Amino acid sequence: MKKQIQALLLQSLTALQAKQILPISDHVEIKIDNSRGSEHGDFASNIALMLAKPARSNPRELAQNIIAHLPESDLLDHVEIAGPGFINFFLKETAHQAIVAEILDKGDRYGDSDIGANIPTLVEFVSANPTGPLHIGHGRGAAYGAAVSSLLKKTGFDVSCEYYINDAGRQMDILAVSVWLRYLQHCGTDIPFPDNAYQGDYINDIAIKLHNDHAEKFIVNSDNLSALFKEEDAELRIDGLIKYCITQLGDETYRIVFDAGLYSILATIKDDLLGFGVEFDNWFSERSLVSNNTVDQCIEKLTEQSWIYEKDGAQWFRSSELGDEKDRVLIRENGQATYFASDIAYHLSKIERGYEKIIDIWGADHHGYIARVKASLQALDQSPEKLEVLLVQFATLYRGKEKLQMSTRSGEFITLKELQDEVGKDAARFFYIMRKSEQHLDFDLELAKSESSDNPVYYIQYAHARICSVFRQMPDKGYAYNEADSLKDLSTLIEPHEIKLLAMLARYTDVIENAATTYEPHQLAYYLKDLANDFHTYYNANQFLVEDDVIRNARLALIAATKQVLQNGLSLLGVSSPEVM
């Protein structure tokens, strides 16, 4: 309805320009807001206040002129001027009632929008290192990324979802040597286990399977190995163990151990995300950037354009000249590429694959990384504006007053699967997106499990189940529901609770567009809670299965439309719509 009112205002402004009451302008932004209360109408616009100065007019006088030049419309009952020049729009009852037929006609397409103009869009999220199962901190990024992707698809963007697999680099080598050391212990080798290796039970499980599949293929001389543990520096010790493991096993055999850890954990990650209702169109391997020489090609391009210099045996990127706080190492003195070098190649590949809009969803601790990645795109003659980085604070989970740990290396963490098993997928998905992504989130485990009106996801789902219950009761009362008949006469939907519910249903498309363009799925979550509240209030104040056919059919059509919108909104958030609770 906002767009219809915008169109009416645009016609009025065009007429005023023709009469030279307003100056000619190629672009006038007409903002329409929901009114603060029914006494202020349904919608309001500050257009007269915005144009008063260029029109050299008093805002209230200009508002009167705008109203006087509005075309005739079946939408509006009347229009009023408020305050210093706000224009309030009051809709006809038939305009409110018409939304029911629109919702029931469009079904799950209600809320669709074309503002995305089919722009090729890549959303990359989660992308956790495959060094252990996903924990509850990763869950928030997964829920947020999936919801943002769904909203963008709903509003007409051509969206692909991608997971970047960090399957190269030091952390993966630490994972491999962790598996290898547990394998040796399983084979009876008496050696300690480093504190800074990966500690979780899943490492033992991978090591046991490695032994079952390959017997004693990876055993080496433990005397030489034991000497490496005498190194006092923990990081030098783990690096020494990695080097020794690769040297003793050889590259091909070492790769078997490496891949055993990688593929086992990656399979777990994929299963956990699938169970969480999160699917990706593509799983992009970091190793592919090395094997197909994409990293080397990027370094060559940057070198050719004088963006790289040598210092202390390393190759540095002049990112400070492009907005970064300091220059960054791309090639270490030992000849190995840094993670940043791979990231540059990865983001270039996104653009070269044809994506015009690139959205990265990162943990908030990566805030400082944004400037350097944008700098690298600029240095490669690409538009940094194509990249948008959304930051997500990790959630903190509490069981009672106990704060639960999430350290992957130590193995002391609650996995995403364990969270789902305890509170369910629906509560987990909904609770994760209830706040702005950049705000800290304390996940209330007990609230998420409660079956009360204090639990927002339960409250919303209960509204949907209540509506389903009404329709299940009909045969017992001797009534039947026919959608076509129910839409024949909606003129009885004039009670305050009905008008409020109708107005809320009409807001849905605007909420979807706002949530999508601002990347704020929590807007939809709060809308659904408000819609559920309006329905529960209506339910408690009125009977639906009344004897009067016209009233009964109209009310059934209204709650059927409400049910459809609840279902549509919950689906976008990855939450189910149960019919019985």
What does this structure look like?
This protein has 581 residues and is of the alpha/beta class. It has 23 helices and 17 strands. The protein has helices at 2-18, 47-55, 59-68, 93-106, 136-154, 170-186, 201-214, 222-228, 234-249, 251-275, 286-291, 294-304, 339-352, 369-379, 416-423, 425-432, 445-449, 456-473, 483-486, 496-506, 508-517, 522-541, 549-572, and strands at 32-34, 43-45, 76-82, 86-91, 120-124, 158-165, 282-285, 308-311, 314-317, 328-331, 357-363, 387-392, 395-399, 402-403, 406-407, 412-413, 441-444. The strands form 5 sheets. It has a 5-stranded parallel beta sheet.
Brief rundown of the structure:
The protein is α/β, with parallel strands linked by helices. The protein is built from 23 helices and 17 strands. The chain is 51% helix and 13% strand.
Supply the key terms.
581 residues; alpha/beta; four-stranded antiparallel sheet; 51% helix
